[in-house]
Design brief:
mainly alpha, globular, transmembrane, transmembrane helix, two-stranded antiparallel sheet
Length: about 425
């Protein structure tokens, strides 16, 4: 019964998130995806009031950084020009708070108390994604607009029943990544059957970002030991790394025609650089640069999560968010070096790739996207899972820590004297 009480809300949350990007009429599904999270948040909160809650030092650090980001977001409310913008900003801040405390504290502690394994959470996400993507394909069969002619590149792109081909590419990539994760944890080859299907949907959607990130995900995972240790060193020596990166950029500027490079990149990104620069030019005061514009309403999609954070919460808000995200990545890398596991290796690969994906899609930390929900819940579960818990649950770790049968007999044997 407790297992059902855990699985059903997770299914509803992920399914409503994916379905909200499809062509269903009305705002019911869009409202439900926030309603399901809120209800489950309140249920877990009421249940955990009388239960022992474990908060690791790592989580405490992330909570402190998140509080700083929240303060900056609240200060940015003063830049809102209408009551509607102020209300929208408050709702946005509320969703951030909801996602953070749900994924970092409530869900991991609930799973710990009821001994629910992380693989169970991954399986629920996997089957939900497969069903939703199958529904999008089936409904798209009767939709004459299942293919979309891109006005920029004149490519015929498949979107199924999604509202845009990029959404098809994003969730096909999500399914591809979760298929890798669930196979790595269970070693059951049946889960690999969906990998080529998701890859084919990415190919049909002609989403360059999704296709590039699939290649990047496979490349990162193949050379994960070198990539993870390099990133761990780069974050530990962040000052040296930033200085070296600055020197490389300065040297590159001397030998490259910057204007031609920017023009080529803008064309490759479907004029996104021009759109982003126009958004930044909308800042009128220094206060807006520092604390942001609040909730900016726009008819043009910004398609860059870092730009969204910069516009909404300013330079201080972007710095706080980057510290939180990079710190979470660093703690996972540190955990990987100390106690490696397949789930942690694949999760780290997904996290790194999604940080790149967020340059062209607003997905990294938001309650309105199933990818972000799954990512941060996975991060919270791993960061709150102690080594002692893994010794009790993971047979490989337990075998590595506990003495063998021969050693146990040898230790229990009484000494003999000649």
């Amino acid at each position: 019964m407790r297992s059902i009480a855990f699985h059903v809300p997770v299914i509803l949350i992920i399914a409503s998130n994916i379905l909200s990007f499809m062509k269903f009429s009305g705002d019911l599904i869009y409202t439900l995806k926030f309603t399901f999270v809120t209800i489950h948040f309140l249920i877990l909160l009421l249940y955990m009031i009388k239960q022992p809650v474990t908060i690791t030092p790592v989580t405490r650090y992330l909570i402190a950084v998140f509080h700083c980001w929240t303060i900056v977001m609240c200060i940015g409310l003063t830049n809102s020009t209408t009551y509607t913008q102020t209300w929208d900003s408050l709702l946005s801040i509320g969703t951030y708070i909801l996602l953070f405390f749900y994924s970092m504290i409530l869900l991991p502690n609930y799973m710990r108390l009821h001994q629910i394994e992380y693989v169970s959470f991954v399986k629920v996400a996997y089957f939900t994604i497969v069903c939703c993507m199958a529904l999008a394909v089936v409904l798209g069969l009767s939709d004459p607009k299942a293919f979309h002619l891109d006005p920029f590149s004149l490519r015929n792109r498949y979107l199924g029943f999604f509202r845009h081909p990029n959404f098809m590419g994003l969730y096909a990539f999500f399914g591809f990544a979760v298929s890798m994760l669930v196979y790595g944890m269970t070693k059951k080859k049946g889960y690999l059957l969906t990998v080529p299907l998701f890859a084919y949907l990415i190919y049909l959607s002609v989403s360059r970002t999704a296709l590039l990130c699939v290649v990047l995900l496979l490349a990162v995972y193949l050379v994960r030991k070198y990539v993870f240790r390099l990133l761990h060193w780069a974050i530990r020596t962040s000052v040296i790394s930033l200085c070296a990166l600055l020197v490389i950029v300065i040297c590159a500027v001397q030998f490259v025609d910057v204007e031609s490079l920017i023009a080529a990149a803008d064309k490759l990104l479907s004029n996104r650089l021009t759109i982003w620069s126009n958004f930044l030019a909308a800042n009128d005061t220094i206060n807006e640069y520092i604390f942001g514009q609040g909730m900016v309403k726009s008819t043009v999609s910004r398609d860059n999560y870092y730009l969204v954070v910069l516009l909404n919460t300013g330079i201080l808000g972007l710095i706080c968010f980057l510290i939180m995200a990079v710190s979470a990545l660093y703690f996972l890398l540190k955990k990987y070096i100390r106690e490696s596991s397949v789930s942690l290796e694949i999760l780290l690969s997904i996290f790194i790739v999604l940080m790149f994906y967020s340059f062209t899609e607003s997905i990294l930390f938001t309650l309105g996207n199933a990818v972000s929900f799954f990512l941060w819940c996975s991060i919270g579960i791993h960061l709150n899972r102690s080594l002692t818990a893994r010794r009790a649950k993971d047979p490989e770790v337990a075998q590595a820590v506990e003495p063998s049968t021969f050693q146990r007999v040898k230790l229990n044997r009484r000494p003999t004297f000649m």
